[in-house]
Amino acid sequence: MAEKKTFEMEYSKVDTERMRLNVGPQHPSTHGVLRLEVELDGEIVTEVVPHMGYLHRCFEKHCEAMTYPQCIPYIDRLDYISSMNNEWPYVMGVEKLMGIEVPERVEYIRVIMAELNRIANHQIAVATFGLDAGAFTPFLYYFRDREEILAILEKASGGRLLYNYFWVGGLAADVHPTFKQECLDVIKHIRATNAEVTNLLIYNKIFIDRTANVGILPADVAINFGCSGPVLRGSGFPLDLRRAEPYSIYDRFDFNVVVGKGEVGTLGDCWDRNIVRMGEMEESCKIIEQAIAQMPDTGDVQEKLPKKIRIPKSEILSRAESPKGDLGFYIVGNGTDKPERLRCRATSFINLSVLPEISKGYMIADLILILGSIDIVLGEVDR
Amino acid sequence: METNIFIQLLGNNWIAYTAIAVLPLGFLLLYALVAILAELKVSAWMQDRLGPMRTGPWGILQPLAEVVKLLQKEDITPDLANKVLYNLAPYMMFTGAYAAVAVIPFSQQFVPSNINLGLFYIFAVSAIATIGVVMGGWASNNKYSLLGAMRSVAQIISYEIPAAMAILATAVLASSLNLNEINTVQDGGIFNWFIFGGPGPWFKVFVLPFTFGLCLIYMIASLAETNRTPFDIPEGESELVAGYHTEYGGMKFAMFFLGEYVNMFIVSAIMATIFFGGWQSPFGSSIMSGPVWGLFWFLAKVGTVVFFQIWLRWTLPRLRVDQLMDLGWKYLLPMSFICFFAIALWKMLI
Fold first, then answer.
1. Is the confidence at residue B1, as pLDDT, over 50?
2. Which CATH number does the domain housing residue A297 bear?
């Protein structure tokens, strides 16, 4: 396998050999059970082959044996750190096929929950990215704040990570009476920590040296590979489904689509992808504030539904902007209460496919950073 | 003047020498426990958490519990490892670190071995620790360990030179390689320490920026030599799992760990001795000075430097291996040469 190179030197012949290194599946920095087969020339990466499937759970086939509401807990377990955002495109698709309009209050709660969950996801992404670069402290600052977000989500749904909260036609339960105030409090803490981490980590000279000009992903390559979310926007392409095809009530809010600008290095490097996540946390805070101001105080949280949820012979591709990017569910109904086919367009999987392309020629320490900047969750990659 | 209190008290016999040899070892083991606890607690406070709280009051027995845990572990040697080198490496690392303690002046009355080539000796023996790292990394027969060992050699060699230059410059100022002698020269309060240009008339301010710069250079280089963040790339856990000691467990891992902490102590002690006056009182030789106060000042200064190292570790990200080489060869080395040149010139002129 290893390619041999021979250098003619003055007195002797020196044979060099490339080394095949297995990174993972048990490795501190592969963010789960991903195995990367890496070919190294010294410390320079010459080839990366990701091997997936260690967490394959037969999700799509499994759902064909399940009724529509029963699929939701399995969808939670795809991208298990932003479950609210996973449930949303699925329930939206089912509702569209059934022709249900959900109450306005439900839409607002869904927006707030999804944005809180998006912040929690980006906090983990930035924190673990810092950890990959060797900065341990911001990691714990973010996890401290994330607990507060999870406490709100737990109060509403009963689960810390896997919520099963967005139901077809509404929500599992109404929110707590102090919900609005708690959200506003947590936003204050999120902003304070973001300012602190920006100071401590993002503009740190060592951090910039490590991440700027590393793993450059040009916008055209990103589009060719089908990347979406912060990976695509980090390359300067402003595609955000919340703005491009506003679903739910996103057309009512004023927010910016954050894109990378190549501020400290080249456009589309690891630092840009990271700063997009930092910016999106702030935008999510703005959306939550507006939603809380507009949200009706009382109202129903569950539309009246037939006892069995049946979908006629029809199909839909329902998409929403998850924190990782464009998450889609292709739902095919066959007239019964179980889907004929449920296909998931898994964002992490598609974003991961660009890794071999952009990590060649960098050092092994950079490879870990590039992987961290793509922000994958293996639950979604393997399904 | 005899500088060793044990020889003064017990006479020039084997009992005194045994005491001289055993005392620093006991001290270092105790120090390692305290330093591990400090690392745990300081990092916890920086990260807004409590740290270990269950073992003893405020968790102060946590390091002991960890040692006991490591003692209970099975002593594994991988099948494909080179048995002799693999088992020897951790002790090599610790020996190298411990040997350097021999010339550290703890107090004016206690220098384990007051030899005239103290500085030279320290550089000679502290390189032994590198051999331990290479042996461990190579003998483990693991790709991660090998990469870690390679990085470690490259790093320690490139940082030994600026560190040596920084120290040699002070040897020029003190006109001695004897560490106790270097300490004695810095008599007379905080402004006579070598970080502030050493003792001299008012126009020593011209040399002050250079000695201060050398202190910083030595600080940075010593971080790299002890494999501490931001230079912990030989064991950079995010890419190399644990670097050269990936395959080690139990007491052998503990020896590596102990070696690392002892190394921290050594570089801090050299820094305190050379730049911060060692056992000299910051208020001059008449206030709060004497053998016991000397020990106190020395330990206080070492503790401060160790705390600084811990502080940096939990604040900064890690450099990449090529950036580390850049910093060493392109910045620190030329700067240390300039400082050395300026100091030598100054010494010639006065």
1. no
2. 1.10.645.10
The answer to whether residues A33 and A55 touch, using CB atoms and an 8 Å cutoff, is yes
Q: Is the pTM of this model over 0.90?
A: no
Q: How far is CA A220 from the centre of its chain?
A: 21
Out of B48, B318, B321, the one facing A134 most closely (by C-beta) is B318
Secondary structure class of A232 (helix, strand, coil): helix
Question: What residue spans define the domains of chain B?
Answer: 76-349
**Residue A109 domain-assigned (yes or no):** yes
Strands A341-345, A170-171: pairing kind: unpaired
B91 vs A: CB within 8 A: no
Residue owning tokens 């103290």: B118
- Predicted-assembly ipTM surpassing the 0.90 threshold: no
CA distance B318 to B312: 11
Q: Note whether B320 contacts A137, CB cutoff 8 Å.
A: no
Name the domain count of chain A: 1
Name the residue among A143, A144, A172, A148 with its Cα closest to residue A84: A172
pLDDT tens per residue across span A254-299 = 888 888 888 888 888 889 899 999 999 999 999 999 998 888 888 7
Determine the pLDDT at residue B203.
73
**Residues in A touching B238 (Cβ below 8 Å):** 28-29, 131-134, 365, 368
Range of the domain at A282: 49-382
Question: Looking at beta carbons, which residues of chain B come within 8 Å of A137?
Answer: 43, 46-47, 314-315
Mean pLDDT of B16-39: 85
Q: Which of A43, A135, A364 sits opposite B316 (nearest CB)?
A: A135
B317 close to A (CB below 8 A): yes
- How many angstroms separate the CA atoms of A18 and B165, rounded? 37
- A105 belongs to a structural domain: yes
Name the minimum distance, in Å, from the CA of B155 to any CA of chain A.
14
> Considering only CB atoms, which chain B residues are within 8 Å of A210?
317-320, 323
Residue A21 is assigned to a structural domain of this protein: no
Could you give the residue ranges of the DSSP H alpha helices within B175-290?
179-185, 208-225, 237-240, 250-275
Strand partners, B107: B110
Nearest chain A residue to B145 by CA distance is A21
Residue A23 in 3-state DSSP? strand
**Contact residues, chain A, for B323 at CB < 8 Å:** 209-210
A238 φ, ψ (degrees, to nearest 5): -85, 65
Q: Quick check: is A8 in a domain?
A: no
Residue B230 has its nearest CB partner, among A29, A140, A206, at A206
Token couple for A138: 């911001």
| Helix, strand or coil, per DSSP, at residue A222 | helix
Distance CA A168, CA A71 (A): 11
Which residues, 6+ apart, have CB-to-CB distance to B137 below 8 Å? Answer: B145, B146, B148, B149, B150, B152, B243, B244
Cα B31 to Cα B297: distance, rounded to the nearest angstrom: 16
- B47 SS3 class: coil
